[in-house]
Amino acid sequence: MPGPLRRLGATPETERLKDIWDLAVFGHSRTLNFTKIHQLPLREAVKVWAYDELPRRRGRNVASSMQNMIRGMEQLSDSLRLQREDEGQRLRLLSRTDMVSFCNRIAFLAETGVFGAHHRVNVIRYVRKIVNRIRVMGLTGPGEVLEGLPADFALSVEDIPDEPEDTEAGRDLPDEVMRELCDNLDLLEKNSNREFRVATELLIDTGRRPDEISTLPWDCLAKDPDGTLVMVYDNSKNYRLGRRLPIAQATAAVITAQQERVRERFPDTPTSKLKLLPSPVANPAGTKPIGSIGEAHRAWVDDLPDIMMPVVVLVDGQLVTKMLPFDKSRIFPYAYRHSFAQRHADSDIAPDVLMDLMDHRELSTTQAYYRVSQERRREAVDRVTALQFDRRGNRVWRKAQGMLDSEHVRRAIGEVATAYGICLEPHNVAAGGQSCPIRFRCVGCDHFRTDVSYLPDLERYLSDLLRSRERLMSAFEADDWARSEAMPSEEEIRRVRRLINRVKADLDDLSEEERAQIEEAVALVRRSRPVMLGMPRVGQPLPDVRPWRLP
Which distant-in-sequence residues (6+ apart) come within 8 Å of 93 by Cβ? Predict the structure, then answer.
């Protein structure tokens, strides 16, 4: 029977008596199914809970979120049916032991891979919430559906397992993969439609959730009072509407072009009712948004050539680097949100700023990306420092793990950046790089170190030295002593050249896979490095609150 006819005469009071609810009667979409709760009194109690809970639910995903909670009670029902002789039908005989058996069964199912660790946490949490709510509503009292249910048939906070770490972080896509995807957006449009291509571009650029992009209104582009372009969207997951996300000019251009296209297709529909990404099917007025892009996105990704990435693998007991295809199953629409967050965390924007940018409810969710960032930086430091050199161009790296740990500590508190390397001289480090005793002639100092990540800076510095020498040798008006002091020495030029040649020679000795990993590490280290605008200025050391303590 068609939906409208089936609902004819239906009211929430009549619908609540059924085992499958049509949520349109309650002002939502889809259905709720209670049939998999085998014990009838328990099923009726859960229906009473759902009837009470529905008015407090908002957004587009009410059915799925409510059904997920009901599935937790289905798991409890299955546990009672399988582990008790009476299959859980005799409510007065239930006890804390049955709840412990339920928790153990859920742990077993998670351990054997039937479902994930996050699902285990959610099932226990949902059951605790619903059972506690059922008690608060008085459903275990005299004459109620769960009359006589023992008080110890319950769960406490301590029964909820610890949340697995990094619920989202660590699932971002490498830069090489992102570049390949962006270079092939034309293929996505060719294989599907323009709306899916624009949706993917906006997912990449903004880091929003897929449903937040697919439901964007036509007039989602706006300006803040200071003239900053923003995209206005609804965070339906947390029911925070009208969120304003600052966006780049290029992203705004994508939105503007799509607005023009939609306006041409649906000239008679008011813009207040139009969707930015209207569905191409059964949508004559342009008011219906596109559905999920997942299927078309998967087909597009699968059609792309393999994206080769350097991977460390174990061969004959030895760790070696090989170029292997990137796992395409990791490329899905929500991964763009992870990638957006990780890019900003790697760029060292403040956690509270990133929390607002991602519209997270908890700072702990945001901080997970910074843990990933630190782990990756540590790995990158390990790689680039393996190609570290002193002022004479000699390799100074040691392989011992203890040295590795010392290197990370030194990078945190025992060094200061120079224009093309690092300085370990204690007084200069204490002064924040402003107390160099030899006035920044780094290549003549034993406290100077550089590595492969500074190669572009060394090459620029050599060019600056040569350019300065040529200018000073030309008709440049200056006193002799000033010209002499400013003239780069042949020894300094020779030292810098030798450093460059030594670094390049070591790079040439690497295999193609090893060089790819070094390049990836260099990119990460340089991205997180403070910018040095020329040579540090000569200045006084920073004041020390404990001047009696010598460095």
Answer: 86
CA 281 to chain centre: 33
Q: In this predicted model, what pLDDT tens digit does every residue of 149-193 receive, in sequence order? A: 999 999 998 998 876 644 555 678 888 899 999 999 999 999 999
Q: What end-to-end distance do the CA atoms of the chain give, in Å?
A: 84
Rounded Cα distance, 292 and 452, in Å: 45
Over its C-alpha atoms, the chain yields an Rg (Å, rounded) of 32
What's the token pair of residue 518? 């070094």
How far apart (Å, rounded) are the C-alpha atoms in residues 54 and 196? 33
Amino acid symbol at 120: R
Single-letter amino acid code for the residue at 510: L
Q: Give the least confident one: 13-17, 213-217, 252-256, 412-416.
A: 412-416
> CB–CB of 124/105 below 8 Å?
no
Question: What does residue 298 show for φ and ψ, rounded to 5 degrees?
Answer: -65, -45
Q: How many CB atoms lie within 10 A of CB 135?
A: 17
- Per residue in 477-512, pLDDT (tens digit) is 777 777 777 777 888 888 888 888 877 877 777 777
